Amino acid sequence: MATLCTCILPPCMSNPPFPSSSSKPPSLYRSTNHASFNSFHPCNHYCNSNCTLSSFSSSPFRSKNPFFNRKQSRLNGLSHSGLGIAKFQGKTRAVASQPSQEVTPTNEPLTKQRRVVVTGLGAVTPLGHEPDVFYNNLLDGVSGITEIESFDCSEFPTRIAGEIKSLSTEGWVAPKSSRRIDKYMLYLITAGKKALADGGVTEDVMNELNKEKCGVLIGSGMGGMKMFSDSIAALQISHRKMNPFCVPFTTINTGSAMLAVDLGWMGPNYAIATACATSNFSILSAANHIFGGEADMMLCGGSDAAIVPSGLGGFVACKALSKRNADPTKASRPWDIDRDGFVMGEGAGVLLLEELEHAKKRGANIYAEFLGGSFTSDAYHITEPHPDGAGVILCLERALAQSGVSKEDVNYINAHATSTPAGDLKEFQALMHCFGQNPNLRINSTKSMTGHLLGASGGVEAVATVQAIRTGWVHPNINLENPDKGVDAKVLVGPTKERLDINVAISNSFGFGGHNSSIIFAPYK
Predict the structure, then answer these.
(1) Structure pTM?
(2) Could you tell me which residue ranges the Ketosynthase family 3 (KS3) domain spans (predicted)?
(3) CATH of span 116-361
């Protein structure tokens, strides 16, 4: 699939001026030669969120901000019961802390001092490495599921995945780094810088940014699995054979840290790991830094590249994967009665979030507005969904309340729906509990075409959700040939794309450990 790729200069070279053509990416990023990161131990119980703050005190990219005062605003008066309320610049605003009691959604908007908008998109996926290429393939119902080619999996019962066959990182990642680091970090850095380029952050714009208020929050559910696996294999021979970068590059924060170093961004910089909910957690947390005045611009989302023997073997051992090897494009089939497990995918999805006035002053294209969201925990089981969907229902209700929208406002949901027998039904039941009386609701699953990108899924699906708002088209649910009796097929998008004037859109992501997340977007008005 045709993609647009460019790259960074090695550290020994100065940054050249931007090319005049908008089709080429900006060469405004410093290249650093470091590499990948966190290890996921297959079959282990999934870990808690791991947030590590990394800050960098010096950068040649530091510059005065022509628009904003450098004085740091701080939140105070945060309530730890009920919906979080904070004082910001003397006014009350809502924040995404979790209430201790059930919240009734209202169509009265909660007061926010600052608005957050989406101004850039970056995607590296099995269906393309540009947001428009990716979304056009979704609209056309193209499947990215194929036989695995990156290693010999002939002995595995599952031999298919949403694998990225080729990716040029030229212009995005320094050649030395691209040879050293794990694929998931290549995806992360490439998608992050493509989101900047898509957002019109040219060299001139970069020089005017207050980099103390620009941050990076891109997580990963499983981290640098190949590097970790290779290091273990090397250790079996001798510790002298181990990669000297193994320890620093197997920590979850390093991907975001590398990107922040490249950009010279000194604002909030850390990473979140909440399994397959990682991207949504990262996006909402990044938005909260903007709502709170700590940042004006944030790169956020997720990246994963777990299609390696240990990753495939781990999910096979969990009996979580489809075995439809003879017909890969039909394997991922959310809500279909014949679904037999999810299909692994890989890639990265990144949003450039920005404070509204900051975006307007620099003349940015505004794709959509980010209204808010919520996190909850099932507190039930490490891998199984709550039987009553209680955590998901609570998450949706709190997301609506925090965003100031009613259930009736929502007419599009990009569901988590992974094509597992239990998970698809539990999410659908929760959605019907919250939105069942809405006759205009349309629901689809991007995973029917991409497979499950794990920690990157929410980022890629956020890109798809924003693209749906931009284009007025929602993509089909492919392979939904015989809907499960437990779902109402009338609210599910059919086998072809549909025209939809989106009012409010929700994107759901849930992860091992009972992590639930819902984030909400709307057209910018």
Answers:
(1) 0.80
(2) 113-523
(3) 3.40.47.10
